[in-house]
Design goal:
Elements: E1 3-8, H1 12-23, E2 28-34, H2 38-45, E3 51-53, H3 56-61, E4 67-70, H4 77-86, E5 90-94, H5 101-114, E6 119-122, H6 129-140, E7 146-154, H7 166-183, E8 187-193, E9 209-215, E10 220-226, E11 234-241, E12 244-247, E13 256-258, E14 261-263, H8 270-273, H9 275-290, H10 299-317, E15 323-324
Parallel strand pairs: 1-2, 1-4, 2-3, 4-5, 5-6, 7-10
Antiparallel strand pairs: 7-11, 8-9, 8-15, 9-10, 11-12, 13-14
Helix pairs in contact: 4-5, 5-10, 6-7, 7-10
Bound molecules: (2R,3S,4s,5R,6S)-2,3,4,5,6-pentahydroxycyclohexanone (ISE).
(2R,3S,4s,5R,6S)-2,3,4,5,6-pentahydroxycyclohexanone (ISE) binds next to helix 7.
Length: about 325
C-alpha cells in the first residue's frame, strides 16, 4: 500500500519533507499540497501531479488523502491538527504541536474523544543515532543516575522576523523535548538568563539566552541558545552521570588533517544536520500509518514541551525569575 499524504504548508520545511518522501523514502506519496498562498501550493504540487488547495481543511476533507503532514507556522497548527483527528486521519505535525498549553490540551481532548492516538509531533532529534546512544548509556545503568545535562543550540543566523520568544518556542523547544527523552522524566521549573548580547544580531533580539531547567528528580539542565553564532549550525550535548559522562559527537562523517591542522565541515542548517533523523522519523511514520499504528512522539509530548516553553517565556518576561511548570497529570490514554 502507498500512503497518500497531504502536506499543509509549502514553505522550506514542507518542501524538504516533500523531497525526502518523493526521492529518498518508500511507501508514501504526496497527493495534495495546501497553503494560504495557493500559488505556492501549486508550485510544489504540480511537478508531483498532486492537487493544490488554498486551505488546510479542504485538504484534510479530501478522501484521497490518507494522512496529513503539517509544516506551517506553530501558531496555526491547532485547528488543522484537530480537523485531521476529527477526520480520523493520522497527522504528523512539525514542532511545536501548538503555541499554548491550552491549545495542546484541546488537541489531546480531541484525540481522546477519537479513542485513538493519531498525532505525531515532529521532534526529529528522537531519531538521531547520537541521542539514542547517549540515552542507552544512561538506561544501561553502569554509570549511575544523571545529575546534569549541558546543551548548546547554535544557529549561524536568524531572519529579521524571528523574535526573542522564538529562541524558546522555536529553538530551545528541541532541547526541552530531547531532555525529556534522554532523562525519561518531566521538567518542573525553568529560568531564563540573559547574558551579554552579541552585536551580530538584529537590534530587537536578546541573544544568547541560557535556559536553566530542573527535572522531577532534580537533574539540572542548562541550554545555551545562541542563534547568530555565524560559523555554522552546531548542536552539542553532554549528559553527566554519577560515574561518567556521555556526549553527542559532532556532525562530521570525515575529517581532514593537513599542514593547517585537523578539521571537519560544519553544516549550516538543521535540515542537513538532522537529515538522517528526519528520514528515520518519516519512514517510521509512513510504515506505521500503513499498519494503522501510531509512531513517534505523542500529543502528550507536544503538550509537555509547550508548557515548559510557556514557563520559559514567563521567566524571560519577568527578569529571569524561576517559574514552576504548570502541567496537568498525564492522562492514562498516553501511558
Ligand atoms: C528551526 O525551526 C528548527 O527547528 C531548528 O532545528 C532550530 O535550530 C532553529 O532555531 C529553528 O528556528
Amino acid at each position: 500500500m502507498t500512503v497518500r499524504i497531504g502536506l499543509i504548508g509549502a514553505g522550506g520545511m514542507g518542501r524538504a519533507h516533500v523531497d525526502r518522501i518523493t526521492n529518498e523514502l518508500s511507501g508514501g506519496r504526496i497527493v495534495a499540497v495546501a497553503d494560504i498562498n495557493l500559488d505556492g501550493a501549486k508550485a510544489v504540487a504540480e511537478p508531483l501531479g498532486a492537487k493544490a488547495y488554498g486551505s488546510g481543511p479542504e485538504l484534510i476533507a479530501d478522501p484521497d488523502v490518507d494522512a496529513v503532514l503539517i509544516a506551517t507556522f506553530g501558531k496555526v497548527h491547532c485547528p488543522d491538527v484537530i480537523a485531521a483527528i476529527e477526520a480520523g486521519k493520522y497527522v504528523l505535525c512539525e514542532k511545536p504541536l501548538a503555541t499554548t498549553g491550552e491549545d495542546c490540551r484541546k488537541i489531546m481532548e480531541a484525540e481522546q474523544k477519537a479513542g485513538k492516538q493519531l498525532v505525531t509531533v515532529g521532534f526529529m532529534r528522537r531519531f538521531d543515532k547520537g541521542y539514542n546512544e547517549m540515552r542507552k548509556v544512561l538506561t544501561d545503568g553502569d554509570l549511575g543516575y544523571a545529575t546534569l545535562l549541558h546543551c548548546r543550540h547554535r544557529n549561524p543566523s536568524v531572519p529579521e522576523n524571528y523574535t526573542t520568544r522564538n529562541m524558546i518556542d522555536d529553538t530551545a523547544i528541541h532541547e526541552i523535548d530531547i531532555s525529556r527523552f534522554l532523562l525519561g522524566e518531566e521538567i518542573t521549573s525553568v529560568r531564563v538568563d540573559t547574558p551579554r548580547s552579541t552585536s551580530k544580531k538584529f537590534a530587537h533580539l536578546t541573544d544568547p539566552l541560557v535556559l536553566v531547567a530542573t527535572t522531577e528528580s532534580g537533574v539540572r539542565i542548562d541550554d545555551e541558545v545562541n542563534v547568530n553564532i555565524q560559523f555554522g549550525y552546531s548542536i552539542e550535548c553532554e549528559l553527566v552521570m554519577e560515574g561518567g559522562t556521555t556526549s553527542l559527537s559532532d556532525q562530521e562523517h570525515a575529517r581532514v588533517r593537513d599542514q593547517w591542522g585537523e578539521r571537519h565541515v560544519i553544516c549550516h542548517s538543521h535540515v542537513d544536520r538532522f537529515h538522517d533523523a528526519f528520514n528515520a522519523e518519516f519512514q517510521g511514520w509512513i510504515r506505521a500509518v500503513e499498519r494503522d499504528e501510531h509512531a513517534g512522539s505523542t500529543a502528550w509530548d507536544g503538550y509537555a514541551a509547550t508548557v515548559v516553553v510557556d514557563a520559559g517565556i514567563e521567566s524571560l518576561e519577568n527578569g529571569g525569575k524561576e517559574v514552576q511548570v504548570d502541567m496537568i497529570d498525564k492522562p492514562a490514554f498516553y501511558a
